[in-house]
Amino acid sequence: MGYGQVSLHYGKSGNIAPLLGEGGLTMARTVRVKICGITSVADAQVVCDAGAQALGIVFYPPSPRYVADLAVARDIAQAAGPFVSVVGLFVNPDPKYIEQVLREVPLNLLQFHGDETPETCERYARPYIKALRMKPETDIAGLANQYVGARGILLDAYRKGVPGGTGETFDWNAIPRDIVKPLILAGGLAPANVADAIASVAPWAVDVSGGVEASPGKKDESLIKQFMANVAN
Ligand SMILES: O=C(O)c1ccccc1N[C@@H]1O[C@H](COP(=O)(O)O)[C@@H](O)[C@H]1O
Question: Which CATH class is domain 31-232?
């Protein structure tokens, strides 16, 4: 068993006795989807209409997906409506900057994608996920399990000098099985590989950015729909 949450689906009668045969008990995994790097209200609406559970806004100035204008970020967050989580992505942020964002943009969750310690992640008293990059010599599970306050651990590809959003995959077989928190798989996911990724890793959720873009910072509606369909199948 992997990191996904197993849900039971019963036959039409609601009777769990018939374990075999059509309409009987089946096991299915629910894999949530976060689509990151949203830079416009139009893209936010596409993501929500496609059925993603979360959208991400990048507050990291060097990124091509950086949303500098906090009024735009606020509009994106409000476009998500009441049932889609809005995630703010930061990389080693200046506390003053993150506090300003928190005042002006209604975020549900913080995503720390740099070298933030557990203490740094927790100082804002907000729900957060911690992103870790799969650097070969790192004890990923040992590191991940230090973030006891995290809602989840996101694993991304490692490329020296780039904190994330590289569009690169990593060796899914290298993922340790003893990460305690829900696992969010990221790194180079796209419509063409997301089903294989889910079958291989059984993550709690997947996170995609570059794989559903027309160009850096601009999402592609058709790729988003294909991605969502391939997660469901
Ligand atoms: O999207 C970015 O530009 C970015 C910049 C800095 C850190 C993380 C970033 N994005 C996150 O990276 C992973 C993988 O992205 P991709 O699907 O490989 O493009 C994902 O969690 C993004 O949210």
Answer: alpha beta
